[in-house]
Amino acid sequence: MTERVVLAYSGGLDTSVAIGWIAEETGAEVVAVAIDCGQGGEDLETIRQRAIDCGAVEAVVADAKDEFATDFCLPALRANALYMDRYPLVSALSRPLIVKHLANAAQYHNATMVAHGCTGKGNDQVRFEAGLAALAPGLRVLAPVRDSGMTRDKAIAFAAEKGLPIDVTKKSPYSIDQNLWGRAVETGFLEDIWNGPIEDVYSYTSDPAVPREADELVLTFEAGVPTAIDGKELTPLQIIEELNRRAGEQGVGRIDMVEDRLVGIKSREVYEAPGAIALIAAHQELENVTVERELARFKRTVDQRWGELVYDGLWFSPLKEALDGFIDQANRHVSGEVRLVLHGGRAVVTGRRSPSALYDYQLATYDTGDTYDQTLAKGFVDIWSMPAKIAAERDRRQG
Amino acid sequence: MTERVVLAYSGGLDTSVAIGWIAEETGAEVVAVAIDCGQGGEDLETIRQRAIDCGAVEAVVADAKDEFATDFCLPALRANALYMDRYPLVSALSRPLIVKHLANAAQYHNATMVAHGCTGKGNDQVRFEAGLAALAPGLRVLAPVRDSGMTRDKAIAFAAEKGLPIDVTKKSPYSIDQNLWGRAVETGFLEDIWNGPIEDVYSYTSDPAVPREADELVLTFEAGVPTAIDGKELTPLQIIEELNRRAGEQGVGRIDMVEDRLVGIKSREVYEAPGAIALIAAHQELENVTVERELARFKRTVDQRWGELVYDGLWFSPLKEALDGFIDQANRHVSGEVRLVLHGGRAVVTGRRSPSALYDYQLATYDTGDTYDQTLAKGFVDIWSMPAKIAAERDRRQG
Amino acid sequence: MTERVVLAYSGGLDTSVAIGWIAEETGAEVVAVAIDCGQGGEDLETIRQRAIDCGAVEAVVADAKDEFATDFCLPALRANALYMDRYPLVSALSRPLIVKHLANAAQYHNATMVAHGCTGKGNDQVRFEAGLAALAPGLRVLAPVRDSGMTRDKAIAFAAEKGLPIDVTKKSPYSIDQNLWGRAVETGFLEDIWNGPIEDVYSYTSDPAVPREADELVLTFEAGVPTAIDGKELTPLQIIEELNRRAGEQGVGRIDMVEDRLVGIKSREVYEAPGAIALIAAHQELENVTVERELARFKRTVDQRWGELVYDGLWFSPLKEALDGFIDQANRHVSGEVRLVLHGGRAVVTGRRSPSALYDYQLATYDTGDTYDQTLAKGFVDIWSMPAKIAAERDRRQG
Amino acid sequence: MTERVVLAYSGGLDTSVAIGWIAEETGAEVVAVAIDCGQGGEDLETIRQRAIDCGAVEAVVADAKDEFATDFCLPALRANALYMDRYPLVSALSRPLIVKHLANAAQYHNATMVAHGCTGKGNDQVRFEAGLAALAPGLRVLAPVRDSGMTRDKAIAFAAEKGLPIDVTKKSPYSIDQNLWGRAVETGFLEDIWNGPIEDVYSYTSDPAVPREADELVLTFEAGVPTAIDGKELTPLQIIEELNRRAGEQGVGRIDMVEDRLVGIKSREVYEAPGAIALIAAHQELENVTVERELARFKRTVDQRWGELVYDGLWFSPLKEALDGFIDQANRHVSGEVRLVLHGGRAVVTGRRSPSALYDYQLATYDTGDTYDQTLAKGFVDIWSMPAKIAAERDRRQG
User: What residues bind L-aspartate, as annotated (chains A, B, C, D) (predicted)?
Assistant: First the structure.
């Protein structure tokens, strides 16, 4: 029986050529798998047909937007996941989802190999292969772009030679990855890190510098999960989509940074993540209201490690599960409402209220009604500062 | 010989009344000490004279703006100090500076006591007393507002009775603390955390929502210290002042948050810190370019602890010194230029260049000239993902 | 109706006197509550009767040894809890258990107050009062030794005056707290930290320097919980008791340290915890075998914070719950057997085996059968060391 | 001109064969470099001559014991470096020292390549190559055992064929690496992790189970550096050697563990490090006496990361330098004396005294002379427990 390869298929030049390239290289049949994580663009049926036209024996397409929203974006939100305090893990979140579907397809189609189109200097190869190592360790991984010299020039030549139904002329000057949680752009002129991004780079967001009316909304959360906008209950997918649209119109969520890749280099990245940035701003402030101080302090360390781990491709790993154990517990009371103003590139919280608030007006107020017993303070301050005091006395004694 | 008290004097109602109050309560002579940390308002001579008029035997005033900029704001910048990822430690930075001057004045004037006007439910009492415990452990601390019932009503009555030269009528509806690094506002209507701030609350920043031209500048850093704007060398104080002005005009640096106080409660705080926020944005991005990945990752933990420690009043403490040992080392190569656009409430880095950059175009580029050896990737990925893979196999085996 | 106070009662001088002292001071009725956490000594009925004889209106005694073992000692074991890498939290674990029983008794007996016999310079007052604040915030706390001058001399005089049935003559030269998880000793001559402990200080452990035969046993764990010794299934309580006996006979678990108290001072402490130390040694090594590397590394940080938090009296706190969420997840696969040799004061693991081991002989061996693909190594090493390499090149360039 | 290779030479079979193997493979001249890090065994001149006899064009030997003690072992001591809380980094410390000498020799001898005899599944290849990447990035690295198939069998055949002066018959059943800081043993029968080590495995330590007299000594430290034993000033090297001897005679420092290698697998390791373990025990306890609480708590996190980083081969890295910045600062006051009893496999601190102690008898004592003001405690406890209390009230309210 002929061996089968499951290929992560995007519909673009590289993976379309890869169908035939892999078939020639391995003698195996290629099953193309395309997953909709909210990247937009062509419809799935068009992509499915192209895979067949390029020689795939089977082409599987799946709308995984709800799954992506619920099982991947929401955990990132509960972890306030911002790699290097900036990047909301757009691509890093979709790769494990795609891996899951690839592993399932491989089992279903009795494939012995799985293929991806990543290069050897990016993070995505790690995310694909680390995910596959965890979910489907028996499969051999093919990476034709990285390991068998399928350069862009060779891909174009291959497409022309085979008459593949791909328009190779309309090359974007940008290297782009996008999904429901955001959009990543890399490109030639941005590789000079002194160059600023130009408006043409952006697609999810309008120019924040253009004057327009502010947008205001109220987000409801239950246990760290957003459940409604302005009182209207929505699915996680719907909430992210609506916030992408509304925050995007206000220019929220543009990020321009030099980033530490797992594979050892620094790279320049431009991101747009209007919905993600707006949601994280709201979630963080609701945590400020509902999460106890020591828990909040330690959670920053946990959140940072969560972001690094997922960035580094280790979504399917024991540490990820244990961090989620912490984070889920910490989000139990992160319920309530946050009023958010979207305007001029900013997502600003202007109000918050919660039945599980730890903010207590009676304790906080300086007005009448104050229930805080200030006579406790002196004892607290003296004992709190005692270790540093004793150390300072020692330092003085020691000269 | 009559005992002496050194009083941290602001020129306002509470500390003006405290001069006579303390004198009556203790029989001691009061030496008033007023420190200019860039809070603006009245000139120092006016404040000095008022202290004398209110009964101080001596009144010492000092312009400590340069000292504050160099010795307190810059270390905070090198630590990217943002308590709860938001608050740049405005008041928390000035208190240890004031404490240092109080301790010096106490020694000079042979005082046996020192006094402050803090209440018992804020953080500043801790910062004063923990600092004094470290620098001048032999002094007794008086806190008349907290410990001997000097309420606002009693203060006003005292001022009227004694005919003190203080205008008690023009009471701000806001409780304000401000200095070179920013401004903090608390107030009655903001104690309802669902209420949004109104424009009247702000003083350091213009409304970011008003359309205006963007401002652009280039900041130069050497070893983590800002040294020039647009190529013009300036002192730290001058740089912070210019950025306060220019970033403030663009509405940069407004913060509205619920915050965890050290003294056990959550409080609502509104801050403005245009210069601080612009400088931290620039410094963080220059770190992204010049600091190695593992160092950058660990530095986030160090920076967080630095911010908590200073917030918690432990500026003069052994851990602070050791964290500074780490941070100074980490900033050795944080040199170069950052282009910053200030507009619409945002301080956005659009370019960065550095002779000590770790970003390497030759390694990062996808264009010709690429020197990254992609054949290394497979080995890296396989070994990197091996522990999670072995664990996943175990989990599958265990069912 | 007369108010009621629930008193944490030990049967000793201080708390026996406190019954009458509190009654006189408050006019309230005293309900004595004595909890057996495995401290040994007198039987509960004797203690109960003494409370009555000393004037308690009710005396409640409870054998909570099983509860203590399962709900307090085992979580500490899963966290490898060693404060300052040494102290297995003996007293810090029993206080929340006692607090729970006090809060329940207060509710049952309609008490409005609760009392403990702690001094003002130890950690236990914090553990009692922080626990009560969480479980029974409505109760007023009385601490007669700390707050109303019930010194030892006054207690002895009170006991004599009232004819209380307490032998005040047999005063131990040591201040001791002990329970199932270990024993803590403080004493006059040990307050000179240059003095070494003498044999007389110890009770749970024999002198490790005396020659004797080694003891060997096999401990079985399931998900981090010890379940059997030498194949014989036992309850957690039985396992701890047997290990206390067997490890104690071999002198295992003596600790002599200077410790950082929460209340600001350093103190000299001597502990004995034969069972705890033996169990932690076994559990740690089984974790080494069954927990994935990145999870194991982060768990050290979590374990450290768990130990600090519990030491600091915050057992009943949101951070504790979230840390437990992590730790429980991390212990899911900590199952298997550990062979332990107890001898000469050491508990040494000499063998471990587990169906959920991540140790893989085929990968680890240097003998035939090796399945590790060494050709992957070069790529891994080169990419792994790339960030440090690029930084070193920068440093050299910068001179 | 003929190219030159600098080879890390041990004098054993593998690296002796590597001289000729590399020469044949590359056509280059081989310069052998042997470094004495205290591994004992043959004298350096014998090793030097063997390298020449095996075909090296030059053979450089260096006694680096003092350098190793001062520049590598002492920093590890100040960091209390114990990987996985157990392993004092024996091999991980010597590799960067050897790398430094290799890089220097390569420069001196105009070599273009450097070679080591490591396999592809151990950590040492990473330590060699990461170190070389940092210190001598221009050199090409050869690893004949890993990359060009120089197996043991082939090495023996090569030695026989060439008549190399190596005795290939006396093969140890153990794979051993040893130096001043300790000794590491791996071996066939220990690869079954249920097997316990046998006495024959050990060389630096006597059997701790054999009854003998205890040994007692007083160690003096200055700023974290041991400077004298029983009042006699010694160099770091002399102190480590004397403690290796005296602690080794008492069976101190045996470690048997399953360990997480950087290269993705778990391995079984047996170590002996009598001097290291005794020194770390003493240093930790002196830190307990002289380091302030918050600094001590954070230092545990820093120490752990230091150990991981050095284990992982990143001695020459920016994070290492910054961690040292913290650790040096933290050790400034770690001065004083520690009395240590060595006996039965244990190194136990029984006394400590220090002019920079933060332990204060007057504060700690329960006897007369107590200066601790217990009236402060109530205020401290109430404010300390307030956040958890408010959270508990919320939880109860929420049900």
Answer: 119, 123-124
